[in-house]
Amino acid sequence: MPEMRRDPITKSWVIIATERARRPETQLIDGDSLNEGTPHDPGCFFCSGNEYTTPPEVMAYRKEESLPDKPGWSLRVVPNKYAALNMDGNFKPSNSNKGLKVSGYATGMAEVIIETDHHSKNIALFTDEETYAVLKSYRDRYLVLSQENAIEYITIFRNNGKEAGATLIHPHSQVLAIPIIPTNVQNEIIGAKEHYDQTLSCIYCDIIENEIKEKKRIVYETDNFIAFAPYWSRIPFETWVAPKFHSARYEVLSNSQLEELAQVWKAVLHKIYVGLDNPPYNYYIHTAPVHESPDKYYHWHMELIPKLTMAAGFELATGMFINIAIPEDCAEFLREIPVR
Ligand SMILES: [Zn+2]
Ligand SMILES: [Zn+2]
Ligand SMILES: [Zn+2]
């Protein structure tokens, strides 16, 4: 039976096209013979030994005796050379022609997190420590960039694979600090506030409680974190990770919480890699805006969106999605893939 399901937060509808849906059938990659690829490419800007080809680093996890912008690092953060934003001007939007032309200076900062000195290791094959370092660097950069008054939102995201927008092989994430709150986040905040006003509870906490009760859409969980396929998944194998405890802000995670999160995140990336043969995907963190305080009713989470289908006319026309896989089947498939 084809079905329409509604995102309880943003109220967007999704069509779950079960007529076209098949149970996922993919050939599992043999988890023990995974190829990490070539460790070093002398022509790569991000490889060790080529530090001089990037702007000076703004942060690095490196061996104590090593020097900035020299080898000896395990993770390195540099400004994005090709950034569309900078801090040279003030956003201050001006409004002319009765609001038909609103514009402001593109104030902001863009950074690249070079996640490892290994040139081509897939993030799904990172060790526990490497995964932890990536998640920790997200928090650490957030804390630094949020000190800038002009910044309203900090987006942390990762493109995996050419089809998902990754232009360089070398493993990296991106951080974009911008002077506005993006619409997708604003819509989640509005929906969460509405729910809070009506029920005095956080809609994300309610969703997670329900997932734990129903069990059908859980991909992986620990004491404090859960990975699940949302009931209203827009895309096959869309996977969310969130804390089971209420928290609006990723950046307040402690080191020990980050360690536990790394266990969950690594499990999710590994299951997606093995189960779907390293598909292209994007993931990002949705956390509360820097200055606005929806802390009582917003709840940070990570969304991983595989790129298995192409957005087409219907999505562009409506903002709605047609999902050709049933979220419960996707969750079951991923749940059953053993964690390395
Ligand atoms: Zn490289
Ligand atoms: Zn909550
Ligand atoms: Zn979200």
Q: Could you state the order of secondary-structure elements as H and E?
A: EEEEEEEHEEHHEEEHEEHEH
**CATH architecture term:** 2-Layer Sandwich
Top CATH class: Alpha Beta
Secondary structure tally, helices: 6
Secondary structure: helix percent: 10-25%
Structural class: alpha+beta
Q: CATH homologous superfamily, by name?
A: HIT-like
Q: What is the strand content?
A: 15-25%
> How many separate domains make up the residues?
1
Over all CA atoms, what is the radius of gyration? 20 Å
Globular, elongated, flat, extended or rod-shaped: what is the shape? globular
Strands side by side in the biggest sheet? 3-4-7-9-8-13-14-12-11-10
Q: How many strands appear in the DSSP assignment?
A: 15
The first-to-last residue Cα distance is 36 Å
Give the integer mean of the pLDDT values.
Answer: 93
Specify the oligomeric state: single chain
Bound molecules: zinc ion
In the CATH scheme, what's the topology name? HIT family, subunit A
- Report the biggest beta sheet as strand number plus sense, adding barrel if it closes: 10 strands, antiparallel
